Amino acid sequence: MSLKLLDFWGSPFAVRVRLALAEKGLSYESQEEDLFGGKSELLLKSNPIYEKVPVLLHDAKPVLESANIVYYIDETWPKPQLLPACSYARSRARFWTDFIDKNVFDVGRKIWMGKGAEVEAGKDEFMQVLKKLEGALGEREYYGGEEFGFVDVMLVSLSCWFPTYEKYGGFKVAEESPKIAAWIKKCYERETVAKSMPDPHRVIELVGMLRKMHGVD
């Protein structure tokens, strides 16, 4: 068996895959992609529709899109299990994965790519997203209950960009959503999470570069 990940250090979606692989204790080769200077032929061949990372190559067969890749990893290597055993609980995990994918990163982008009123609107929208995610977490340790699970992987991977949202939005997640902040802190205590995350300062520098590229600064 061979596993190869077409990766980019600052992609929160690639973080998802790195984290899932770490949770399963799987060894893999990582190929860092240059998303701005020239993507590899392997990436363009493996993901010709979107031409983006992450891509997991399992015995040279490409698996695409981060949530789909994590589903694939969990089905192919079922222990330790990330998705719940109960079909209803699995349906809820898929629902919240869909909610996270449709909201968290794209709303955060409105903050760091916006100006003036756009930033404030993006910040307000982001706070509403966090409130809904707080409600989904409830009083549990993790979204999967007492055990770190699938939805935790989906969301905590995106949290590596939260310091960037805080910088450009002028807020603190810990003040606006203490329950989510406490959950993030608990997740980061896991070695698998901590080693999968990029340096938040590097992410802020990356976003500064992206803002200049798009003429925001």
Q: Give average pLDDT, whole number.
A: 97
**Helix percentage:** 55-70%
CATH class of the largest domain: Mainly Alpha
Question: How many separate structural domains?
Answer: 2
Distance between the termini: 46 Å
Largest sheet: 4 strands, mixed
Poorly predicted ranges (pLDDT <50, ≥5 residues)? none
In the CATH hierarchy, the architecture of the largest domain is Up-down Bundle
- DSSP E strands, number: 4
**Beta-strand content bin:** 5-15%
CATH topology of the largest domain: Glutathione S-transferase Yfyf (Class Pi), Chain A, domain 2
Helix-strand string? EHEHEEHHHHHHHHH
Q: Which value, in Å, is the CA radius of gyration?
A: 17 Å
Number of alpha- plus pi-helical segments: 11
Task: Classify the secondary structure makeup into a structural class.
Answer: alpha+beta
Order of strands in the sheet with most strands? 2-1-3-4
Shape estimate: globular
How would you briefly describe this protein structure?
Helices cover 59% and strands 8% of the residues.
